[in-house]
Design a protein that fits this description.
α1 runs antiparallel to α2 and α1 crosses α3. The relative contact order is 0.13. With 108 residues, the protein is mainly alpha-helical. The radius of gyration is 15 Å and the shape is flat. The model has no long low-confidence stretch (mean pLDDT 91). It is built from four helices and no strands.
Length: 108
Amino acid sequence: MLQAGFLFVLAGLAEIGGGYLVWLWLKESQPVWYGVLGGCILILYGIIPTLQNFPSFGRVYAAYGGIFIVLAVLWGWAVDKKIPDTYDWIGAAICIAGVSVMLWAPRP
């Protein structure tokens, strides 16, 4: 479970970080190497989920969606200096609860 959590966070950071670099290149006129580096990081994001031990592609990617939401809130707080409000935290907690049910619910 610890390895799964680590891979979820690593993939989420790769997705957000890579996307952020592409954003900076295209929206904020940063040098093209920002976009190239962001694209390379996004390729890593595509590879990292394959390291998970869960057998279902759909469940793994759905879980990444929930983790991504939490990481995006934290990224916005740390990088964009947008302080999350109570509703951001409630929404993030609901997403984590949903991810937990999807991945670790007992199944026959």
